[in-house]
Amino acid sequence: MKPDDFDYPKLTTTLAPYVKKGWPESPAFLDWFFENVFRLDETEAHDAICDKPNDKGIDGVYVDHTLETIFFFQSKIRQGDAPKFGDPPLRDFAGTLLQVDTPEKIEALLQSGAHPELKRVLAKNNVKALLTKGYKISGVYVTNEILDANGKEYLAIGDAAKRIQVYDRTRIADELIDLDAAQGIQGEYTFDVSYVEPMKFEVGKTATTYVFPAKAVELAELQGIADGTLFSQNVRFSLGNTSVNKQISKSILEKDQHILFPLYHNGVTILCTKSDRADNKLRISGYMVVNGAQSITSFYHNKGALTPDLRVLAKVIELNDQELANTITINSNNQNAIKPRDLRSNHHIQIRLVEEFEKIAFEKYAFEVKRGQTFADGQHVITNEEAGRLLLAFDLDEPWSCHQIYKVFDEKYGEIFGRPSVTAYRIILLSKMMDIIVEEVEKIEFKPFGHYGLTRFFLLAVVKRIMRADPVGRTVAEDPATLVKDGKRLAKFLDGIRTILSGIVVDLNYEVKEIGDEFDYKSDLKSPAKVKDYMDRLLKSYEKDVARKKAPTLAELLK
To answer: How far is CA 497 from the centre of its chain?
Structure first.
């Protein structure tokens, strides 16, 4: 989107799906902002909104426990042309924030005649207790207007710069990643159907479907097989050397079996935006394969073995309904079991992270969101499964749950990925820290424990505790991008983490020896109480060593 796309007439079109949820325009705009710019999961975005009459100027509340910050939002839509605004609304918003900056003021609000929805959001998020704990507040002003020179000057001075950030139309357009970019192949392809009459049926006015045995030699010529764009809507790509793929390749090589192939193959599903049946041809455009990636990829890699007799039942569906396309994609993928990760592979948060990794091009890091994706040689690939477990251990302080991978893309998906602090830079830093941990666990003397799946995540959580207790480490945990962009400082930081981990492993070896045969690491590392107890003891031991000058702090290591 461009800044001009936030002119009121265009903005109403963008907000239409959010208005359908039952929101008036202003909260609909905030809901759209939460999901598309502030990176919240749909449920989190909905829960954060409290835009009601007598809401005291507070339209939304969101708590980021990673940053230990309570965000208060105010949104405004202007309907006029050439919209600009200066400091008056920002001064008013600054006054609004003065109502919520202490535990006492929150209690007063809870006892006041403010709208019940505002009270519920404040109570649900434990805002009073969090302020008592030391959480800071931050105001976010969201508008389709343009911040003028007076407004920028106001934000540059005093407390305003610390307390308020503005998302005007220019900033929103700059930070927004277009998730509506066309997927699949935008060109045309023509199937030869002279040998068969495709079965055609209409599904009301929603879709037109053709079913016919497509030649494998034609399917292998579809655009976008090599780079995966043909399968961009699929929940996964070709899954490599699975039993299904082995069987497909075997059948391709046995040419006398080609004529029988349609009898035991489930077929392929192709979605397109336009189709035309004429002159023994079936022409399609704007197409993608949503089921059959494994088969078509196998055909592509075995072109020399294909014959005209090798055919696959193809279902070509013409439609322009994205929601229905998603449903077809999920329900038609049944040759290999679909995992929760597969169902999230096309979620806007995952797509946004992929775009971020591509934009920063840091040390050739890439983000894998679909099983079976291929990458160029030399790329450092981080899967979203691994990223989710890193975030679960480090940000959510739950290393004991990291073996339950289904949680990453199921019940904890929003908590893990649906936060503004989850960026490519954050994931890269955690991955680099984990690389060091993997090396250091080799120094754990009790090898079964050192190589146990949860041990590395337990150590990551320990490192997080140490970082939080250190002013430099705390800054890094809150803003990893600044560190990652500075190559020299990043290298020093990682060396510091290695030094600290070496000391932790020494202490851990001592703890394990003290426990002896009673050490039940398989159960202990799945127990929140046990894990917290081990973490507390290791942290105390480290703090004692720091106090005795036996161990350095991160601040000292980074001097």
So the answer is: 26
Q: Who contacts 420 (Cβ-Cβ below 8 Å, separation ≥6)?
A: 38, 39, 40, 64
First to last CA, the chain: 43
Contact 61, 74 (CB under 8 A): no
Question: Residue 348 CB: number of other CB atoms within 10 A?
Answer: 15
**Under a CB-based contact definition with an 8 Å cutoff, are residues 459 and 437 in contact?**
yes
How many other CB atoms sit within 10 Å of the CB of residue 526? 16
Which tokens hold the place of 269? 């599903």
- Reference 233, options 205, 273, 265, 202; nearest CA is 273
Rg (CA), the chain: 28
**How far is Cα 542 from Cα 240, in angstroms, rounded to an integer?**
45
Q: What is the pLDDT of residues 417-433, one digit of tens each?
A: 999 999 999 999 999 99
Give the pLDDT of residue 250.
65
Q: Count CB-CB contacts under 10 A for residue 22.
A: 8
Task: Please state, in angstroms and rounded to a whole number, the distance separating the CA atoms of residues 147 and 144.
Answer: 10
Distances (CA, A) of 230 to 8, 51, 350, 404: 36, 42, 18, 32
- CA separation for the pair 35, 39 (Å, rounded): 5
What span, in angstroms and rounded, lies between the C-alpha atoms of 292 and 239?
A: 11
Q: What is the pLDDT of residues 63-122, one digit of tens each?
A: 988 778 999 999 999 987 768 889 999 999 999 999 999 999 999 999 999 998 899 899
Sheet holding 199-203, edge to edge: 185-192, 281-291, 268-278, 311-318, 207-215, 199-203
Instruction: Decide if 438 contacts 452 (C-beta within 8 A).
Output: no
CB-hemisphere CA count at 13 Å for 327? 7
The two three-digit tokens of residue 398, written as one number = 């739950």
For residue 393, give the nearest of 365, 412, 370 by alpha carbon. 412
User: At residue 393, what is the residue type?
Assistant: A
Give CATH for domain 3-175.
3.40.1350
Which residues are paired to 137 by β-bridges?
Answer: 70
For 299-342, the three-class secondary structure string (H helix, E strand, C coil) is HHHCHHHCCCCCEEEEEEEECCCHHHHHHHHHHHCCCCCCCHHH
Provide the residue ranges of all domains of the chain, joining segments of one domain with +: 3-175, 185-337, 348-557
Mark 253-267 as b/e (b = at least 16 C-beta within 10 Å). Answer: eeeeebeebbeebbb
Q: What string of DSSP letters covers 339-359? A: PHHHHHTTSHHHHHHHHHHHH
DSSP assignment of 65-122, as one string?
Answer: TTTTEEEEEEEE---SSS-EE-SHHHHHHHHHHTTSSSHHHHHHHHHSSS-HHHHHHH
CA dihedral 381, 385, 386, 388 (to 10 degrees): 120
pTM of the model: 0.69
- Look up tokens 């329900």; give the residue: 331
- Give me the residue label for tokens 């190589």: 451
